[in-house]
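Everyone, study these two lines:
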Amino acid sequence: MYTGGVQLGAYALERWAHAERERLLRDCSTNVDNLAAGRWETLLSSALVVEEPMPLPYALLLVAVLGYAEYAYGAWWTAAVFLFGHATATLLVYGVLRRTTDPQTRRALDVGTSYGFNAVLGALTSALPRGAVRTAARAGLLALAAAPLLKRGRTFTDAGHLAALGIGVAVSVAVDCLSGTERHKMA
């Protein structure tokens, strides 16, 4: 439902006048200027809108990852990891960028589903078989997310994607620890 709602919202926004559409996106953005002004509600609103409709492969992947997370851990867990990863990665990026004087960076549009998606994807590694498979998946995902940071033309969102994935992997490790503790108590 989340992916469908975001996608329908994006199609509806395409029909708005350019100035109104731009204003709404800027109001929902977690850019430096908004957060520095105390507009903390953008930590939620930015996850509910996208600049343009999502490409079908990405939308389907988002549905698959969120759907499997809901199946494996429940809707509340999935929503909590998504929002925690989205907000925490956003705040980490803000912490790095808050002293920038570049007006383009300070006012950049920063909305979308990708930080939450990356957090849930990282957290889902706890659903993989324990041992080498789980460790390789975590390392591989983190390496894939780090690769754009090594290229020219990188953006702060590339760092945010890596941060969100790292947060998700940390959640996964915590799930492993908690499930290991529960197994130990039952033994």
Q: What stands out?
A: The chain has a mean pLDDT of 94.
